């Protein structure tokens, strides 16, 4: 529990409106988007600048209080759940875009800026920020950096890490660290910036971010292709990549997901198809024309059931938006939606789809699969009810067996969602005892008291 004395200090520092103590409000801020995980914070604070973040951290340091950073709570691995109570520091009021530098092709913003707001602001200047997580309408830039978020354009353009140039953060001892800058080349000293990206709030709290911008593509062409079986869709992905074509987007949905999305948005998706691929090629008009012909030829060669090309920008945007609704559409079906993040080498996509279908049948589960097929990053989603203990046991057995094979194939337990609480056991399988030990040493060097986002990514020594 947080003492009245500490609460008074926080109110004095941040003002009463930026300190939350009411139980009903605290209850809501103990969740993220991960099913079945919840923990009550003792208090929630909303700083409005880096200095206030630093001052809150100093209080936590001096009093030995756990502190958990949080953005919009769209995380899917429990990374912002305060499992030791303490202080949740919500960064949503750090929401200013500080600069768009058109000469150096950079943008600098506070960590609470919503991803889509930054995208739109730079687009008005004729510039392009490519990372586009499915939650971009609500997720914040700080959360994107902490989880190294991906998105639909990740195949061609990469993930958040590929665009971060500089970070300002508060370390667990209360000191401010700025790492990186606007220089395109910078190899001075340890790469703290790269270590902080994807650290899930366990090493420091990000308050400001500078990202690289690029010119937008001049032309786009969007395909919507249907398949009578999902293995053929996987083969199409492998053959397109093998042909040295890198689409900006190559997204997949299986039959269960297609039907859920159609129930949700009613855009005319055929319910009888086993899978669809949403493929977008972009770039110079001449290159786009050439690649579009090659993609169409490959789709015909593998035996796609139907091939459609979006007639205009508006139709292409509506198709992409339908894909972004996949999780929301699936979540409407059952009380609990267990979403995972298995990622395999792209050549193994057909085998992965077959395995998912086999395991769903073995464990008698309803599973919808969608994801970033071009990255080999799939989201097999179990539609279930956490009140049914037997069903949940089968769901976890499904994922255990799936990840066991994914790791044998040289895949990873997370392509973009992070480890948080939900995947600590899976990470230990992937990187081994030695890998976990090294991560612990890094964590201890930044946070010797263990107060910053404790219990995430790997077990503490006390827990293990």
Write the layout of secondary structure elements.
Elements: H1 4-14, E1 19-20, H2 23-28, E2 43-45, H3 50-63, E3 67-70, E4 87-90, E5 97-101, E6 106-110, H4 115-123, H5 141-147, H6 154-157, E7 164-170, E8 176-180, H7 192-196, E9 205-212, E10 219-227, H8 230-242, E11 249-254, H9 255-265, E12 275-283, H10 285-302, E13 306-309, H11 313-324, H12 326-331, E14 336-339, H13 349-362, E15 366-372, E16 377-384, H14 389-408, H15 424-446
Parallel strand pairs: 2-4, 3-4
Antiparallel strand pairs: 1-2, 5-6, 6-9, 7-8, 7-9, 10-12, 10-13, 11-12, 11-15, 14-16, 15-16
Helix pairs in contact: 1-3, 8-10, 8-13, 13-14
Question: What is the CATH architecture annotation of the largest domain?
Answer: 3-Layer(aba) Sandwich
Number of domains: 3
**Using only CA atoms, what is the Rg?**
22 Å
Helix content percent band? 25-40%
Low-confidence stretches: none
Specify the biggest β-sheet.
7 strands, antiparallel
| Average predicted local confidence, pLDDT | 95
Task: Provide a count of the helices.
Answer: 15
CATH superfamily of the largest domain: FAD-linked oxidases, C-terminal domain
Please give the number of β-strands: 16
Characterize the overall form.
globular
């Amino acid at each position: 529990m947080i003492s009245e004395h500490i609460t008074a200090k926080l109110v004095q520092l941040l003002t009463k409106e930026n300190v939350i103590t009411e139980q009903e409000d605290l209850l809501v801020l103990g969740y993220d988007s991960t099913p079945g995980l919840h923990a009550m914070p003792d208090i929630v604070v909303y700083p409005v600048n880096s200095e206030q973040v630093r001052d809150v951290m100093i209080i936590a340091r001096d009093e030995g209080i756990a502190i958990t950073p949080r953005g919009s709570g769209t995380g899917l691995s429990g990374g912002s759940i305060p499992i030791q109570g303490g202080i949740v520091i919500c960064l949503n009021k750090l929401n200013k875009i500080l600069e768009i530098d058109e000469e150096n092709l950079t943008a600098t913003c506070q960590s609470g800026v919503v991803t889509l707001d930054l995208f739109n602001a730079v687009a008005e200047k004729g510039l392009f920020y490519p990372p586009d997580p499915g939650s971009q309408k609500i997720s914040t830039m700080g959360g994107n950096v902490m989880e190294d978020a991906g998105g639909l354009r990740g195949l061609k353009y990469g993930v958040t890490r590929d665009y971060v140039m500089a970070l300002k953060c508060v370390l667990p001892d209360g000191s401010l660290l700025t790492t990186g800058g606007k220089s395109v080349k910078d190899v001075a000293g340890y790469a703290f910036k790269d270590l902080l990206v994807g650290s899930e709030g366990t090493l420091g709290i990000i308050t400001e971010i500078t990202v690289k911008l690029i010119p937008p593509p001049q032309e786009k062409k969007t395909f919507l292709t249907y398949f009578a079986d999902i293995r053929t869709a996987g083969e199409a992905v492998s053959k397109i990549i093998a042909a040295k074509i890198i689409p900006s987007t190559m997204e997949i949905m299986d039959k269960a997901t297609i039907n859920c999305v159609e129930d949700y948005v009613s855009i005319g998706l055929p319910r009888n198809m086993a899978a669809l691929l949403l493929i977008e090629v972009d770039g110079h008009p001449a290159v786009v024309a050439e690649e579009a012909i090659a993609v169409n030829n490959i789709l015909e060669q593998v035996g796609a059931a139907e091939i459609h090309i979006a007639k205009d920008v508006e139709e292409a945007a509506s198709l992409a938006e339908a894909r972004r609704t996949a999780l929301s559409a699936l979540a409407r079906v059952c009380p609990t939606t267990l979403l995972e993040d298995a990622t395999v080498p792209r050549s193994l996509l057909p085998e992965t789809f077959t395995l998912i279908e086999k395991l769903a049948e073995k464990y008698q589960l309803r599973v919808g699969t969608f994801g970033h097929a071009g990255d080999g990053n799939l989201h097999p989603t179990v539609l279930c009810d956490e009140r049914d203990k037997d069903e949940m046991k089968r769901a976890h057995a499904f994922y255990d067996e799936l990840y066991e094979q994914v790791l044998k194939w040289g895949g990873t337990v997370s392509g973009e969602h992070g480890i948080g609480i939900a995947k600590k056991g899976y990470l230990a399988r992937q990187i081994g005892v030695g890998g976990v030990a090294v991560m612990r040493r890094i964590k201890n060097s930044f946070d010797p008291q263990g107060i910053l986002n404790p219990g995430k990514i790997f077990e503490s020594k006390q827990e293990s």
